[in-house]
């Protein structure tokens, strides 16, 4: 298993940031009556299934720069990144206004000065921030191929695309078969880890060349007409 997914390293990161991470969990629970930011609402499950999962990606973050969490929902993984890496500027992107409003209040409560919240569709915001970020990531958003179309336009040359995936990722990337080059991306590097007895994977693509100007396409096109077919 790669060093980046070493359990001891993740445990060290968790312990170092535990007070702020627990305060974040408290915020998620307190907002649950107003807007559903996450699936589970109990603190123990939020920690073991969500916070720890996000922590596995922290060692993969760039040494400096701006990063974006697309489809952030309740701020997973973006708020975790902001807590663990206060030296980075984190953009949390979501199209649901209620969630964005809740995140504004939550990040203010946590006094996270390195967070920017944007309420927009990925396809629209990518036109404003094309190749602006060192890393674009997403967790539990959509299938891998569609996700790459959303994320690649955001990433600068030499940057990374990051996706959280389960065991079915192999079925999702098989149809791509090297066609990621159309999006300016390398083949993925895969970082496996185990969480609560289940297999998890972090997939990383390097931005090797500019993304084709045809991307991002109009809203909804990524889901209706797959770019790799």
Give a structural overview.
- The protein is of the alpha/beta class and 229 residues long.
- The protein has one domain: Vaccinia Virus protein VP39 (Rossmann fold).
- It is built from eight helices and seven strands.
- The protein has helices at residues 7-31, 43-55, 78-84, 97-109, 122-128, 144-151, 169-173, 221-224; strands at 66-70, 89-94, 115-119, 133-139, 155-165, 189-195, 198-206.
- Strands 3-2-1-4-5-7-6 form a seven-stranded mixed sheet, with helices on both faces.
- Helix 1 crosses helix 2, helix 1 (7-31) packs across helix 3 (78-84) and helix 1 crosses helix 4.
- The radius of gyration is 17 Å and the shape is globular.
- The two termini are 33 Å apart.
- The mean pLDDT is 94.
Properties at a glance:
229 residues; alpha/beta; Rossmann fold; 7 strands; globular
Short characterization:
A hairpin with a 2-residue loop joins strand 6 and strand 7.
Q: Average pLDDT, to the nearest integer?
A: 94
Encode the helix/strand succession as letters.
Answer: HHEHEHEHEHEHEEH
Assigned CATH superfamily: Vaccinia Virus protein VP39
The parts where pLDDT drops under 50 for at least 5 residues are none
Strand order of the largest sheet: 3-2-1-4-5-7-6
Rg, alpha carbons: 17 Å
């Amino acid at each position: 298993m790669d060093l980046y997914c070493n359990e001891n390293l993740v445990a060290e990161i968790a312990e170092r940031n535990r007070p702020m991470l627990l305060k974040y969990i408290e915020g998620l629970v307190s907002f649950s009556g107003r807007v559903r930011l996450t699936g589970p609402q109990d603190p123990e499950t939020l920690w073991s299934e969500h916070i720890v999962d996000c922590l596995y990606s922290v060692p993969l973050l760039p040494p400096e720069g701006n990063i974006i969490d697309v489809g952030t929902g309740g701020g997973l993984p973006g708020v975790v990144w902001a807590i663990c890496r206060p030296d980075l500027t984190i953009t949390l992107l979501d199209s649901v206004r209620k969630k964005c409003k809740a995140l504004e209040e939550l990040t203010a409560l946590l006094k996270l000065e390195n967070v920017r919240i944007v309420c927009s569709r990925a396809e629209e915001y990518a036109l404003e921030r094309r190749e602006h970020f060192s890393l674009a990531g997403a967790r539990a958003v959509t299938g891998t191929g569609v996700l790459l179309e959303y994320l690649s336009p955001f990433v600068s040359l030499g940057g990374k695309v990051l996706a959280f995936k389960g065991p079915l990722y192999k079925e999702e990337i098989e149809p791509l078969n090297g066609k990621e080059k159309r999006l300016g991306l390398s083949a993925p590097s895969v970082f496996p880890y185990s969480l609560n007895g289940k297999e998890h994977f972090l997939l990383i693509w390097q931005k090797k060349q500019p993304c084709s100007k045809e991307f991002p396409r109009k809203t909804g096109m990524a889901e209706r007409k797959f770019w790799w077919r």
